[in-house]
Design goal:
Blueprint lengths: L7 E5 L4 E5 H6 L5 E7 L4 E7 L6 E3 L2 H6 L2 E5 L1 H8 L10 E9 L4 E5 L4 E3 L1 H7 L1
Antiparallel strand pairs: 1-2, 1-7, 2-6, 3-4, 3-5, 4-8, 7-8, 7-9
Length: about 130
């Protein structure tokens, strides 16, 4: 898979943001709604495409994709919970993960044990 087109998820523990990159949304077929799934016992974070708004789904702000490379979800509580899932993760850091598309489930899965530390200045330059 071409690295630049791989589904990407970034967890930013400095600003408590989850960034779902455009490549992830493209892999899911440009959904209007997405659901974030966390399986702590498996060490997996998933993004599932949803056809309609459900109580747990988030609307994808397509307008933000015209200006940025990602859709951003802000949730201090969720990001703080995610910090505890990987003992290698450190507060105030940014971690990037490449995902695997499960086409039949319309879901991209991210293994938190395969995350990569991204330095803040490098990440800001890439945005």
């Amino acid at each position: 898979m071409n690295r630049s087109r791989s589904p990407i998820l970034v967890v930013d523990f400095k600003y408590n943001i989850i960034r779902i990159h455009r490549s992830t949304l493209m892999a899911l077929g440009h959904p209007k709604f997405i659901e974030l799934i966390v399986a702590p016992s498996k060490g997996i974070i998933g993004i599932r495409a949803e056809a309609t708004l459900t109580p747990t789904a988030q609307r994808v702000n397509t307008d933000s994709l015209a200006l940025q490379r990602s859709v951003q979800l802000y949730s201090t509580n969720l990001v703080r919970e995610l910090l505890g899932l990987n003992p290698e993760w450190q507060d105030e850091q940014i971690y990037k993960m490449e995902g695997v598309l499960k086409d039949s489930e319309r879901t991209v899965l991210f293994d938190i044990s395969n995350s990569e530390l991204v330095h803040s200045d490098e990440y800001a330059a890439a945005q």
